[in-house]
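Below is one record:
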Amino acid sequence: SGSPSKYINYKEPLTYKQAQKLPDAAEWQEATEKELQQFIDLDAIIPIKRGDVPKDKNITESKLVFKVKLQADGSLDKYKVRLVAKGFTQIYGVDYYENFSPTPMIGGVRFVLIFILQHKLKRASGDVTS
């Protein structure tokens, strides 16, 4: 964990190449490998060579997003990398056939909140690691 002042004006890299040129390249590399391994472990992606993709198939482009997470006092918490798909490059009927975006129904949200209040449970929030 670095000193708080070091990260106040820290500029996260915009590309993998930029990340590899920084003094903290090893930390970015580790965070990148961790993110990609999670997708592989969940069978969400299968690494392939671009040349192995059939000519009649499209590749959904993706990019890495780099972010430094800080603790409340401004010191370094962790290096975070996210792999995001550029879904806007997909073509309906070619790359996908349906769209799924789960959202909770307001009745379910109300039920959970009332249940918490009636049973005097402690409310908490958290981050789910994929």
Notes: The chain has a mean pLDDT of 85. Helices lie at 4-7, 16-20, 25-41, 106-118.
